[in-house]
Every structure is written in structure tokens, then in C-alpha cells.
Amino acid sequence: MFDVAIIGGGVIGCAAAWALSRYEGRFCLLEAHEDVANETSKANSAIVHAGFDAEAGTEMARLNVLGNAMFDMLHEDLEVPFIRNGSLVLAFDDEDMAHVKELYERGIKNGVPGLEIWDKARVLEKEPNISENIVGALWAPTGGITCPYELTIALGETAAMNGTEFIFNFRADKIEKDADGFTISAGDRKVRAKYIINAAGLYADEVSALAGGETFGIYPRKGEYIILDRSEGNTVSSTIFQTPSKMGKGILVTPTVDGNLLLGPTAEDGEIKDDFATTAKGLAEVRTQSTRSVPGIRFNKAIKTFAGNRAQTPVHDFHIKVSDKVPGLVHAAGICSPGLTSAPAIGEELVGLLSGIGFELKPRADYKGKRKAIRRFREMNPEERAEAIARDPRYGRIICRCETVSEAEIVEAMHRPIPARSLDAVKRRTRAGMGRCQSGFCSPYVMKLLCREHGMKMEEVTKFGGQSFIVYGKTAEPRQEDAK
Amino acid sequence: MSNIKEAEVLVIGGGPAGLAAAVSAARSGAKVVILERENKAGGILKQCIHNGFGLKYFNEELTGPEYAERFIDMLEGLPIELYTDTMVLSVNRDRMVTAVSQQLGFVTWHAKAIVLAMGCRERTRGALQIAGDRPAGVFTAGCAQRLVNLEGYMPGREVVILGSGDIGLIMARRFTWEGAKVKLVLEIMPYSSGLNRNIVQCLHDNDIPLLFSHTVVKIHGKDRVEGITYAEVDERRNPIPGTEVYVPCDTLLLSVGLIPENELTEGLNIPMDRVTNGAVVDQNRQTDAEGVFACGNVLHVHDLVDNVSEESMIAGRSAARYALGQSGRGEPIPVKCGEHVRYTVPQKVDPAAQEPGEDLRVYFRTDNVYQNVTVELRSGDTLLARRRRMVVAPGEMENISCKYADIGKISGEISVHIITGGAK
């Protein structure tokens, strides 16, 4: 019997696990996919928002500012990539400028430090590639960029290091309650826990319903993105916003922590929660709108396009609360933007809520609060490289040419506290496959390493779990259908 | 920085270009080092198990591995050190090359001459920004070829191929022969970019339909590809609304272009040709950087490995001459593209540096399919050479030569012209 079961292995679930793991108790995280960060948490803008956008007085505003301030600690203690590169919200006319001033006022109310209104000259001095059509901008120096899936993995690994059990391919289909707690089932598999944290993202309503809880009216709002080669990463240095609309923060142009240029997202409301397809129309909108901010974008340097779905609710705020209907159930529902920024603060908030309904918080004596990331060969200097190879020759075998990723890192990813078992899981942890050739060169090698390290057969290797197999079988073998 | 190794000619890449360059450099008197990232030399030829290689160079019809083996055999007895499993990380204008391997660790070479022979990579789905889901089952043709021919696994059973480039055509046949169903080949242009013999032997002979002026507009599939939607395109290659057709399949193969792998070359800061995506070179294949030469697919994407070998022999010899202090540099004359010529290699010619007794061969590609054309190589108003061709096409690299005896006629800007009898 676990004390707490967290349902959902996105950034919120992993943040809850991280915050909880400081305390004594038996904790587990149940994730429907084969790895953490498989939905919204891997497909977003990767922005650590300054906090001027959320309505004053909302949970979003409060937790955004709190979360933003925690990123230096996460960078230091958990080695989460983070650069406080600053945000600019561009104004193209007087109406925009009025919006910008509103955001400035709101930011001050929300407690956002360092906000300034800049004129056109000042903006262009900092960012020469921005459009000449601007009239001014809001400058928010505390805005930053991170890597959302590395953040999720770092939070999750720290929890795992401190005893949290991660159970994958577990899609809850039944929740029963008795005097002692909950029984959560996924087919024949059952997990018992006294408390449940519902961090199931797009499916928080479904999970709540299984337990007999309240609904939040979650629907997907799709955002499409284009990512450009690292050659374009210096086009801008800060994150460039346009003035937000009802639908969202508008299309950004931003560098990423790995040196790519990221464009997007659009905002298209939909009905199908697992429809992550990009569309010709959406991608065209990304191109048109990003060009408004930065006219010279070289779209022939695109290396990938993708889309993610925000968990949107009609009431525009986070729904982080103890369930009104089901004792022992705590929700973190409707966590759309600024959910990523707020995640570490939400994690702590959820622990506070659990404590409020009777879960006793006793600090763990042997808590390991510092987590080391996989050392990247690409980031080492010549001396460090020579030393790494001397210590472990697998650092000398480069598997991913485009991102200079060695065998040592890839194999380590397969044996971390939350091990990588698919091509995409390896990719998220090492960047192998994220370069110009998009795994054309390295994927057969990574597949063979997965077979060697995890005892898989080539036919069993998947892109991201489920039925996403890469190959069907050996060429020399007759197919089942032919062998009649 | 401790322990810098010295090399006379350092060749980056042990595929057909690097091997030929190394052999030629060694035969010209230089000591050669080849750095190859895979565990065997031969480059892409290792996985090209079909035949058709060497018709020009050896007057024989060889498979890719056989062709590679011929050059690997030539290394015997020559002062050539071949390091495999070695990845070059950087090159600069001082001709310092850093590399890593398990055996050598992190090493730096200082070379008297460098030959860039890194080959090319394939254009990807992401670069084309094809919309839709992102399931498993989308492969570039070369990656699929590696899985089938080197690893021995079938990447798919019901296949649609986008792009009638040679690799796509070869894989259409390969998949068919391994029992898969290749349903369709789609080509965005109104003509194929592949060799005509491949269209015949791979598609026609296997009854695989080929649709020109069509492209894939959407990929469908939750975990694995379930189908694709294709559409017709207009003259500007934009999809025409209303022409969409859905085809169920489990695999989409992309054969949509090769891009010279010049990431290392960026460290040299040299002028690049925006059409070839390779370096600008003279007829000895020397780039703008002193003592740095380029050949093979990293310079411009070839259709025939025979031409790669020929070009690389020139580059290797020139690199050796440079390393041994036997060459000078004069004033190069630019080579301009005349009517219907998309690019030429070389992009400049130094008449004083022409190898004695050797004709000057200029490679080029046309921008469309034309029949009954005359190709002219001129210098100013002087005609240097003329040939007639029954057909020229973008997918078949052409060349025209100025005889060594006529090199003296070169004075003004050189140009290549295709004079048409009528476009196809």
C-alpha cells in the first residue's frame, strides 16, 4: 500500500513526486505511456515566464512568480538547463502599446521584478533582427528558457533516487475506494494508495471521474511549432513575444537552451485530446506570424515541426485543490500556460494540500537533494574529452554525429533512475536524433544499443512505446501469413 | 595542447571519395592519413548492394561493396594510415583537425593538406515541414536501406515513397524483392531526379506507379504510420486543394534530396556555392582555404560513383602536390553558368595550375529536361569545346572538357551554355 499515488508523469506529476520525496512515505507515480514527459510536457514553448501575463490575484499569477524564482535552484541542484535570457513583448502600434502598458502594470501587481518599457531604439539595439515596424516593447529580465522534458526527467529522477516507484504503461481504468484508501487498476494490474494526486494533464477529468470526483471541463488547445537548425540560434537572444490575445500568448520567436530557434505556438481549440498532428494551415500561421516579429527567419533551416495540446479549462486558472467530492483526492487540473514555470511551486503546493488533509510530513533523513545530469561530451573542452575517453572509452565512440553524442551518454541514459527504453526516451535524455539528420544516421546504432543494454530484439524496439515499432522482422524470415 | 600529430595529407572520410583521394595522394608521393567514422571504410557503398557501379571507371558492373573493395585494395603497399571508428570534430584554416575514437582518445592533427570527403546526408521530413502525426514508420530512404541491407530487418510492408531520386527508386525495388508492397512513388517535380535506368529497372519492371507533380501533404498514424494523404501540385509546387487522396500504408520513405555534409566545413569560413551547398573550388578541387581540397558528394551531389572517383583522384593528387610544396597559385578565372546551366564544378579555373597533359573537365547540371541540345564551353568569345547531347536532365550530371592543348586559349571569363533545340 502506497501512501500517495500520483497519476500522471508529466512535469506536474514529476514535480509533485519531487516535492513529496523529501518526506518519509511510500510514493508511486503511475504513467500511461512508457516514459515521463510524453504529452504536453514535451511539446510546449519551454519558457520560464516572468509572470506579467496572468491575471492578478489568480493562482496562475501567484504560482508563476513563485515557480520562476525556483529555477536557479533547480539549475544548481538538479542540473536542469536554464538561461534567464529575458523576454520582450513587442508592440507594433498604439493599441499594442496600450496592451504592453497593461502587462507592465499587471506584472508589478503580480510581484514581477525588473520590468521596463522600452522604446523602439532600445529594443533594436538589443535585438537587431527584430522588425522595424515595432513602436516599443515590454522588457522582463526574469523571463527565461529551459528544457521542459529535461526538467520533468530531472524532477522524476530525483524522486526515484529517493524511493518513489515509477510505474509505466499504466493507464488507470478503474478507481475504487474503501476505508483504507484507493485501489487504482489498469486492466489486471492494481495499485493501492491512501491518497491520490491527480496530475493527469489532458485526462485529469477522466481520472477524476473514475474516482467519482468533480469535472473541470478540460479540452485540448493545440499549439503548433517549427524548430530551426542551431545555425539560426543567434537570430535573437531573448524570447520575443507578441501582445497576447484571448487565445494565448501569441507566437514566439525564441532561442532554446540547446541553441536552436523555436517558433510557435498557434492556438486552435479542438475536441480530440490525443490529436497531436501538425496542419498545413497551422504551420503556415507559425511562419507568417513569426515573420512579423523577425522578418529574416530562414525557414529552409527548419529541422522539425511538432504540436502539443494544452489542457485548457473554461475557467481560466489552475485548479489545484483538494477534491470537494472524494476525500483523499487532490487535483492539479487545467495546468496550461504558465504551467511549466509554475511546476516546481505547484509540486510544493500539492504537498501542502496533502498535509492539510492528514498526510504527515516527516522529512526523510537520507534525502538526496542533488541530482547530476548526464555529462555531455559535446559540452566538454578538449582536456575533459581526453580524460572522459581515458576513463570510459565509450565516450570516444560518437553515435549521433549531428549533436556529437557518444555511446557512453546513450548507454547511461538507458540505466538512469528512470531508464530510457525507446528511441524517443534516449533522444530526450541525450539529444541523439535531434540534429540536422533527425536520427537518419544514428537510429540504427541506438536501436542496437537498446537491444544490447535491455535485452530487446530489434523488432521490439519502439520509437515511443505502444505499437511504434521501427522494423517488422528479419528480411530472411518468412512472414507468419506466408508460412501457412 | 599536448601531442599534436603531424600529417602530410589528411583525408576526412573513408568512402569512395576519400579512398580515391588517398590513393591518388599517396601515388603522388605524400604520406596520407584517412579518418573514417564508421568501423569499415567504403562509405555509403557498403549498403548499396545493387550493381551498376563501375561501368565507366572499371568497365565492369560491380555492386557498391565490390566497388569500394577495389579502392580499399589499392591502399595496400601505399603509405596510407586508415583510422576507422574515428569522428572528426573540427577543422580550421590552420589545418588543425581534432577527432575522437575509443583507441586514440581525443587527438589533434596538424596537416599540410586536407581533403574534405565527408559525403552527404538526406533531407528529412522535418526540413520539408510535412504536416500530420509523427508516428514511427517514416524513414529516409538511405536509413531504410541500411536497416534492410546491413542490419537485415524489414522497416515496412506497405510502402509509399516520396521522391523519385535514385535512392528511393533503388529502395522501391529492394522492398519489392523482399516481399513488401510498394504502392506508389510520388514526385513533386514534373520529371524524375533519378537516373533513367533506375526508373525502368526499379519501377517499370516492378509495376510500381509513379506520379509526377504530386507530393505528400499529410502523414497519418497514432503509433505507426497508418496512411498518407497526397495531392497534386501546381507550377509553383503548391498543393492544389481538392486533389487530396488517402493511401493506407505502414511506411513512408523519403527520397527528397541529398545535402552535402558541410558542418565541419563551417569551421573554415570559406565561400560556399549556394546551388551545390558545397565549397567553391578550382579545377584542382582546392577551396578558398589554402591547402584544403574537397571532392565527392561533400562538394556536389553526384549520380555516378565513377565520377566521384575521377574527381577525387584529382583532389588527392592536388593535395599531395600542395603538401609537398610542388604547386603554386595563380589567378583563378570564374566559371559562369550560361543558359539552362544550374551550376558548374569547378566554379573557377586557374589555367596555370592545370595538370600537364590533362584535359580540363567541367561538370555541370541543367535546370530542366531538354532534347537535342548543344553544349558549349567558352572563354569570353572563344569556343573551347562543343558537344551535342540527345537529352540532358537535372538528374544526370554532365561534363564538357577543354583539351589540354587548348588551355592556352583561356583568357576571359569561362562559361558553360546549353543551347536548346526545344524543351521537353
What does this molecule look like?
The complex is a heterodimer of chains A (484) and B (424). Chain A is of the alpha+beta class. Chain A contains 13 helices and 23 strands. In chain A, the strands form 5 sheets. In chain A, strands 1, 2, 9, 10, 11, 12, 19 and 20 form an 8-stranded mixed beta sheet that branches. In chain A, strands 13, 15, 16, 17 and 18 form a 5-stranded antiparallel beta sheet that branches. In chain A, helix 1 (11-20) packs parallel to helix 6 (148-161). Chain A is globular and about 60 Å long. The N and C termini of chain A lie far apart (49 Å). The mean pLDDT of chain A is 96. Helix content of chain B is 18%, strand content 35%. Chain B has 424 residues and is of the alpha/beta class. Chain B has helices at residues 16-27, 64-74, 125-128, 141-151, 166-177, 196-203, 305-323; strands at residues 4-12, 32-35, 51-53, 62-63, 80-83, 87-91, 96-101, 105-116, 120-122, 131-132, 138-140, 153-154, 158-162, 181-187, 210-212, 214-220, 227-232, 245-248, 251-254, 258-260, 292-294, 333-337, 341-345, 348-349, 360-366, 370-379, 382-392, 398-402, 414-419, 422-423. The model of chain B has no long low-confidence stretch (mean pLDDT 95). The interface between A and B is large, with 60 and 53 residues. Strand 23 of chain A pairs antiparallel with strand 12 (153-154) of chain B.
